Write the structure tokens for this entry.
Amino acid sequence: MPSAAENTKGKQVSPFHECNTSPLIQLAFSSLISASVKNISTRIAGVGAYTPSRVLTNQEMEKMVDTTHEWITTRTGIQERRIAAPDEATSDLALHAARAAISDAGIDPRQIGLILVATASPDMLFPSTACMLQQKLGLAPVPAFDISAACSGFLYGLQIAHQFICNGTHSHILLVSAEKLSAITNWKDRSTCVLFGDGAGAVVLEATHNSRGVIDILLRADGSYHEILRVPAGGSAMPVTPDVIQQNLQFIQMSGKEVFKLAVTAMQDIVEEILEKNQISPQEIACVIPHQANTRIISALADRLGLPMDRFFLNLHRYGNMSAASIPVALAEAKAEARLHPGDKILFAAFGGGLTWASAIIEW
Ligand SMILES: CC(C)(COP(=O)(O)OP(=O)(O)OC[C@H]1O[C@@H](n2cnc3c(N)ncnc32)[C@H](O)[C@@H]1OP(=O)(O)O)[C@@H](O)C(=O)NCCC(=O)NCCS
């Protein structure tokens, strides 16, 4: 299938042709691009979140595995999580969040030139969850693909979208992070099942000439640690067989202690690096939106930065770890609670399987 930029008849057209915006807007945008691609940045034009209605409390978990509300809250901060319905797939969660973000941005969905979905729990190995979402939004033939970077997926997606916007390929991109982790959780393993939850968050990213928007994004990965947080089976390395199922290898496995230590160091280092690189002091950050895995990891980051905990937006007590979806759901809630003001510098930090980790600073 030809790309939108190639046009269906192979004719070279404006890269914004696929946006279906008015010819006047296309012309204005094309002139801006040719004037100076370098002056373009990315702003978050709209945010949206969706979490399933079913609440699974720690008290209910006590009846499922050998655990206590007290253990879960003191070790992680989590009090409850959301669980998707059996007939709700990751793309269904994504759809709700995407619609909310599009509505918040106040754009015509046909302006969207690219759909990205960050997920560690896709509907299926392929087609991508992004394609499933595109179909549900009725946005064919807009390009769509998934990003696999576990809990860092939203920030990896932000960087990919930012590059497409800065190089002038797209003016509007829909980035959704969605997870149905309950489908890949071993509900008999107390060391993991108490940690995760389902949900989706989305942003509409828009090209801007205003100084407000993305200031910087840093991405990192170290595959030598791939075994400490993973779903071993279900891919080409270990196809699912009855034997694999009997050993529960199709579910999330994690060496919690090891992941914890690496998460603390990696998140602190990458946050200090992005602040130093951009000559921004921690005190200039109005709000930190970290990956929501564990309150202790976040308070260690607060200590290292010398920031009070009230500068951090936390919602993990209500949702647990929603992997890639954690940051955009927190972002949408922070906006809804009027925690973000024009001109505020917002810091993001994530850490997850891969290992992957990342940070970003935006001006709201
Ligand atoms: C998972 C985590 C909360 C466990 O906390 P911890 O303080 O490291 O706990 P440990 O793994 O040392 O386990 C301590 C004990 O609690 C037990 N335990 C584990 N899960 C339990 C549960 N749900 N309820 C009660 N006891 C539990 C362990 O079996 C262990 O018992 P033992 O000492 O008799 O062997 C913590 O390691 C963590 O948050 N890790 C990082 C998780 C994370 O961020 N993952 C995602 C990255 S995106």
In short: The two ends are 37 Å apart (CA to CA). The chain is about 35% helix and 25% strand. The first strand starts at residue 41 and ends at 50.
